[in-house]
Amino acid sequence: MGIREIVLDTETTGLSAAKGDRLVEIGCVELMNHIPTGKTFHKYCNPERDMPEEAFKVHGLSEEFLADKPLFKNVAQDFIDFIEDSVLIIHNAPFDMGFLQAELEWSKFPRIENDVIDTVLLARKKHPGARVNLDALCRNYGIDLSRRTLHGALLDSEILAEVYLELIGGRQVAFSLAQETKDEAGISISKTSVKQRATPLPSPLNEKQRQSHKDFVAGLSDMPIWQKYWSQNQ
């Protein structure tokens, strides 16, 4: 038995879905018992709108590059199937969850009901008064940022997975990038040289594993779930 978590990040055309900005990239990394399994989900999405220069400078995703990518509604079910009912680990969760919920609503899909741990709040609790953006946390924990010249949803998820492991008590296993093989749903399996990595548990989770999720999140008394943010903004 174990806990399955999904570290998640997105890239967008701007800062506000309510003002017409759209999601353009989703990256997810699977953790089992807080250890990366090598299983990821990654998709670019055509936003059906222009790419503001400010956003392009952040992630480097142009209108031309995204023009032939699928619409969010065409990858939404694959995304939902990947995250299942796992706890989501997100840095500045209200931002990413706001865009995901808006895109799901526009695409006529149900809203996400998963529990969410916001690593910004986790970092503020562990390092009061310190900067808690991803770059600052990586420098604090000695995590290599040389591969991060621009923001990218999958790369940032991989880096956040390392940061999260440090925030909850120390890195459990070296997290290394490797070449991937992808199936038609955009799910990739990375082969790495990390021998300590745990073997992924069967999926979907059974009732006892779901209870493990709930018990884990319940123990993080200061970690709000995304529903709290949404209830405050409805």
Which class do the helix and strand fractions yield?
A: alpha/beta
| CATH class descriptor | Alpha Beta
Rg computed from alpha carbons, rounded to a whole number of angstroms: 17 Å
In CATH, the architecture is: 2-Layer Sandwich
In words, what does this structure look like?
The chain is α/β, with parallel strands linked by helices and 234 residues long. The protein has one domain (4-228): Ribonuclease H-like superfamily/Ribonuclease H (Nucleotidyltransferase, domain 5). 38% of the residues lie in helices and 18% in strands. The chain is built from 9 helices and 7 strands; from the N terminus they run E-E-E-H-H-H-E-H-E-H-H-H-E-E-H-H. Strands 5-4-1-2-3-7-6 form a 7-stranded mixed sheet, sandwiched between helices. It is globular and about 40 Å long.
Which features would summarize this protein structure in a list?
234 residues, alpha/beta, Nucleotidyltransferase, domain 5, 7-stranded mixed beta sheet, 38% helix
